[in-house]
Amino acid sequence: MRFRHPDGSVVHLAYCTNVHPAETLDGVLAQLRDHCEPVRKRLGRDRLGIGLWLAKDAAHALVTDPAALRGLRTELDRRGLEVVTLNGFPYEGFGAEEVKYRVYKPDWTDPERLSHTTDLARLLAALLPDDVVEGTISTLPLAWRTPFDTTRAEAARSALTALAQRLDALAELTGKSIRVGLEPEPGCTVETTGDAIAPLNAVGHDRIGVCVDTCHLATSFEDPRTALDALAVAGIPVVKSQLSAALHAEHPHLPEVREALAAFDEPRFLHQTRTKTDTGLHGTDDLGESLAGGALPESTPWRAHFHVPLHAAPAPPLTSTLPVLKDTLAQLVGGPDPRTRHLEVETYTWQALPPELRPRSRPQLADGIAAELTLARDLLTDLGLKELP
Fold first, then answer.
1. What is the pTM of this model?
2. What whole-number distance in Å separates Cα of residue 195 and Cα of residue 89?
3. How many domains are there within the chain?
């Protein structure tokens, strides 16, 4: 979906396909048919943006087979889909029964992360619509926080510097500008937007910036205006933003609140949990650790890294951080010019929701994704953007 910003530029809105992950090229093609096109049709649009997730094997198949890449481009066009952004965070296994800490491997100290992201950049340059010259890729925020000493930090900096040089060469070769954004996430070396400033200044290249995920921002209790203004002062570009909402518990000491939270303590994904007190931010690596008792202060609200559907906040006594998303979006695109032009709805946890909240069929999942995109569209038009055909 495309929108005209009041300054005349085009802002793109997509949804991320990691919600129905596939590891192979055949699986990706099936996604387009079984999921993405039905969502487009529910929205009544001739064109729908998708934030494509290409696992290692699918990306390798496309990079090594030009005919397969042309075939993917043709299939996207045939189904009314376009790609201006990729989710390069998960490497493989995102559909496994247990993902947890595995999603952070390989990290930016491993040469395979640089190789994979370079492949993604080349593929994205080939998949961009003819009238679009800029693409974006989100990636993990360097590494999980431990262990990460100065030697590993230097290895990550060198890899990102090499990536920037490769992106420069790709732009010169293709005329397509690809930028990559580190996605701050609780528990990682770069947990907050503020944590991103020093390592990105060390790289010192505008092709490498930040991907602001509004669920992660909210989980770490960051104020959107303060966070984004600090990035602007530091000269760090917001490459893209993922529109997502975290789980919020206002009164975690209450038994009924803890019971409601326990329904979201599931085994597939890591649900880092945070609270903020007068002494600072306190956290655990997973929701179950918090519920075990004693790990977190219980006198202040808790937020858990669980991407809840944008349009469907959990039932009381829980809620979502949708207000943080709205505030962030206003800061990003509600001003005289957009701070980013690539927005991506990323609720990958539909099938990890408590059983009674999960979609029971492909049509129900498509209905839910379409409802999320409708909410995001309405937020954009309320900020003065005009939806384009």
1. 0.97
2. 18
3. 1
